[in-house]
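Here we describe the complex-level prediction in full. Unlike the single-chain runs in Section 2.1, the two entities below were treated as one system.
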Amino acid sequence: MSVTVHLPTVLRSHAGGAKDVTADGATVGEVLTALASEYPGLSGQVVNADGTLHKFVNVYVNDDDVRYMSALDTPVTDSDEVSILPAVAGGAVDSSRSLPT
Amino acid sequence: MLHVTEAVYHQMVAHCLTGLPEEACGLLGGDPEAAAVVTCYPTRNVAASAKLYTVDPKEHLRADRDAESGGHSIIGVFHSHTHTEAYPSPTDVTQAPDPTWHYVLVSLRDIRPVVRSYRIVGEVITEEPVTVSSR
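The structure predicted for the assembly as a whole is:
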């Protein structure tokens, strides 16, 4: 299957600035592996060395978060769009009370 | 410098106030080259905490698609600090997802909300002025 992969801004520099790229694979994992093979700078950015999805990255197949499906084993078809987005988080949990001088 | 419209400014602050006692968060859509925010995307804080925030991933996806369909992109994030200064915490810095983004903090520590914006590149925090225009 050849699917469209939508890249977040932070990863586009690794794909020549492209917003959308195409990659082959029958599953999300295969698509991401193919992507990393085509664009080596993406290696390790989405999938960890142990083959698991990076904790601070969210991957969707169309409107579905793959973490609620079969993760990297989630199947894809030609008409699917895989979207990669960074997790956006933070908080004042360890905030200093003072402003910088 | 970050440019926001009055509507965006008021939406950000209103969302943060409405989110009390928890931290509130949202995404900012606009023109990255001009550093101009035209759309505020208030999102759910799935951490549901007074000290932590996590933008709802599904809402992030929707906001990203909406921004791009309008020829814009997500250029930053805002969140509230309910009891501390409008300054990025160590957690804000380590979890900053994109060095090109603008990070807006809304402090609700005092009766009047304080809004400040920063660039976070690696571990370097640089405050930037925020201009508010009528449109």
